[in-house]
Structure formats: structure tokens, C-alpha cells
Amino acid sequence: MMASSDPSSPSAPTPDAHFLDPGRHQEVFPRPGLALLVGTRKGAWILRPDESRGTWATEGPVFLGNIVHHFVLDPRDRRTLLIAARAGHLGPTVFQSRDGGRSWREATRPPAFPKAGPGERERSVDQVFFLAPGHDSEPDVWWAGSAPEGLFRSEDAGLSWESVAGWNEHPNYALWTENPDEQGTPDGSPLHSIQIDPRDARHMFLATSGGGVFESTDQGADWRPLNQGVEANFLPDPYPEIGQDTHCLQLHPAAPHILYQQSHCGIYRLDQPAERWVRIGDQMPRDVGDIGFPIGLHPRDPDTAWVFPMDGTDVWPRTSPGGRPAVYRTRDGGKSWERQDAGLPPEQAWLTVKRQCMAVDGQDPVGVYFGTTNGDVWASRDEGGSWRCIAPHLPHVFSVETADFAA
Amino acid sequence: MKVGIPQPLRGYTKEELVEAEGATVDELLLDLDRRFPGIRFRMIDEQGRLRPHVRVFVNRERIEQLSAALAPDDDVQILQALSGG
Fold this sequence. Notes:
The complex is a heterodimer. The two termini of chain A are 32 Å apart. Chain A has helices spanning 165-168, 173-176; strands at 19-20, 33-40, 43-49, 56-62, 67-73, 81-86, 92-97, 104-106, 127-133, 142-147, 150-154, 162-163, 191-196, 204-208, 212-216, 224-225, 246-251, 258-263, 266-271, 278-279, 292-297, 305-309, 327-330, 338-340, 358-360, 368-371, 377-380, 388-391, 397-405. Chain A has a 5-stranded antiparallel sheet with strand order 1-8-7-6-5, with no helix packed on it. A 4-stranded antiparallel sheet of chain A has the order 4-3-2-29, with no helix packed on it. A 4-stranded antiparallel sheet of chain A has the order 9-10-11-12. By secondary structure, chain A is mostly beta strands. Helices cover 2% and strands 36% of the residues of chain A. Chain B is of the alpha+beta class. The radius of gyration of chain B is 12 Å and the shape is globular.
């Protein structure tokens, strides 16, 4: 793998990846159909349902003990899996499977910043945080976001990664990102929520916790802030051009001119070509508020979305308001919200759901899923109407994604 | 020379003691990476810095500079501290 002393150098050779023993684990037996991919602080798991999605079996762990921030199936071939991982105090990497999880290889060239020049900030990837399959027209292209805020691209399904100069070397990079020497976002400020317009591979979005949302129309060669109307109440100017704390950004797959975001300061929607976000969380109950981390979108209805509100008052407990967890759903684009808590604990349940821990499937009715920091995964097979815990006692959940494996 | 590998990195080497060569610690780690692809980046970041919890001892003395010279019969141990839960 990194046979050069400069792993970011384009000339560094990338020998064949070696096959890995994915640690102490239960063997994964690839099966077609729906599954949940769960990344945790201590490894990855796959949950598979029966036909009714009423009962779920837990498979794994894979890479037990590794910190897994994201675990994603390629929807284009429905067989390739990538895991963003690091082992405790060792460096970050990416694991790849081409056969639905039966065998694994490690990236030959993991995401890495360029070697710093004299006087430049010496950036190193602390964690690969977000993985995004590329546009349908570009098989095997993937994008990755890291903490600190780095953007990387692979053209070989995640085995070798190149630094994306259009972001990582952008003249405004220092202005748009947190200084890693300052104590900002816990665990470092991640670049996340990489979204690609299904109509145009060159049209992309990303989000950061220290800069907000950014848009590119040239496949990442250049970027511009896209934050008008989004509050940043922790800054002197509460509506700045940049500096917002976007927790989760989602592009609607069936109406890709529509973006939703769950921000540090509320829930927003943008219908492009409009430039100004609308705070749709204002319609949430006042005693619940519109603070949270994830947002999930209905795969077919652009006006239906789910959020998991958390307490953003006082010192930001980031737990279910009042210890009474609930998902909230809108079916009219944010004009109104309904509480969905059937089956969830009625009281003394202080759940936290991180930004990559809510997912929806493509079935009818839509299944909605979330994972908590106390290691439970919850599922609804009726669009949020009722909930059941389908995997208790996993480690702290960092990501939940749905997958539809090929036959 | 023989190089001691810490448990978290034995997924690469499969063994506790492996052979590698180099006139400096940096060269030794590059040779290790040729033999066990990927192992170096888990210890050294892209700016050439040892990761915070990785330690290299030569003849039981901690080495902080990767440019430190090595002799063919040196005893090299790579250790990885653990913290947190």
C-alpha cells in the first residue's frame, strides 16, 4: 500500500489490496433484499428482516472494536460495501467488500490530505466520517468526507482515494472550516452529507459543522456557500454567509431541486432555484423545539420527512425533550408536524440519535429506522406509526443505513 | 532486524515478531509497509508524524524522531498505548 513516504502523492504506488480478516466476528452470509447497516463505536452489524419486516436478525459484528462512522452499500451494483473505520488510536482507513460482506479488503490508499508546504497547516485525517456512492453514470466512483473537513474521491470503489483540491485547497478553506487547533466541535468538525444531484453528476452539495452547506456545479472543482436564511445564533451575526452548523443535509431523490436540513438552529427546506432556506421547524411544538441531528426523507413523496427532536435548551443536553422520545413527521413539506411515539418508551428515556443514525427504506409503506447512542436500533414498518426495538444492546450507534442487496 | 508488533497491528503481520530492514526508523517503517501493506498509515499520518498513541522503542529507549539511525542488530519494539473505554 503506502510504499511512498507521501501517501497523498499521486505518484505513490498502490499495490494490490490484501484481503483482511475482519476481526473476531460472526461470518456474514450475503442475502438479497432489505437490510440495515449499522456502524457503531465498536464495530459494524447487519440487521436482516423477515418478509413482513416484523422480526429482525442481527448478523455480526464485523471489525469488532473498530470505530465505524459509516457503513454503506453501493446502490448501483448492490454488492459493494464500504466501511469508514479507525481502530482506537490507530489511523483511519476504509474497508471494502465486493461480495456483500463475505470478504473484505483494506483501502490501498486511504483518504489523506496533501503533505503540507512550508507555513501551511499540517492537516491529517482523524476519521473518515461520511461515505457517498457517486452518480449512477460513474460506477465505482465514491466520495468521502472526513474530520477535520476533508473531501476525497475514489474511482475504484473505495480502494484508493485522492484529495479533492477544489475543496481541500480552496482559497476560502480556512474561512469555511474550523481551526483544528481550537476546541470546537466535539471529536473534530466533520465534512458530511455529500449529496449528488441524480440529474447531473456535476451538481453536488456537502455540509460541515463549522461552515454550513456548500454547493458545487462542476463536480467539486469549486464551491459556494448556500446558507441564506439559516440561523447561526452562536455567532455575532446570526445570519452570516458561512459559519452555520449543519447537522444533516438531504437532497430529495425524487425531487432533487428540494433540500432539507436539520441544523443546530432548526429544521429548514430549500426549493431551488430559490436561494433562501425556509425554517419549517417553526411549526414544531414549542415545548419540543426543532433541534436535532438527523432528518430522513420519504423516497417518493417530497413533502414527507421525519426528524428526531432533541433538547437544545440550556447547556444542550441533546436528549429526548423531557425524557419522552418521539419522532416527528411532516407530510406537507413542514407546514405541520405530527408526533409519532407509539411503541417508544413513554418516559425516563433520554435518547440521543446522531446525524447519520436515521434511515428510510424504499418499501411501501416506507420503513423508518433510527439508532441511539445507548446502542438500540428502532424500526417502524408503517411510516412512523408504531415503533419497536429490533436490536438492543449494540454499542453506541454512529450510523444506520438501509441497503437493498442484489440477488 | 526483528521488529515487535503491537497486538492492534497484528491483523497485518499475523505475528508478534517480524523481519524488516532500514538504516533509520523511517526506512524501517517504509519497509514494513512494503511487507505488510497498510500498516504504516495506521502509525504515521500523512504529514509524516507518529500518531499520538504510537511509540517506537529501540533497544528499550523511546525514539521520537523517525530519522533516528538503526544498526542491523538493534531491537525495535512498536507499542501502542490504549486509553478510553
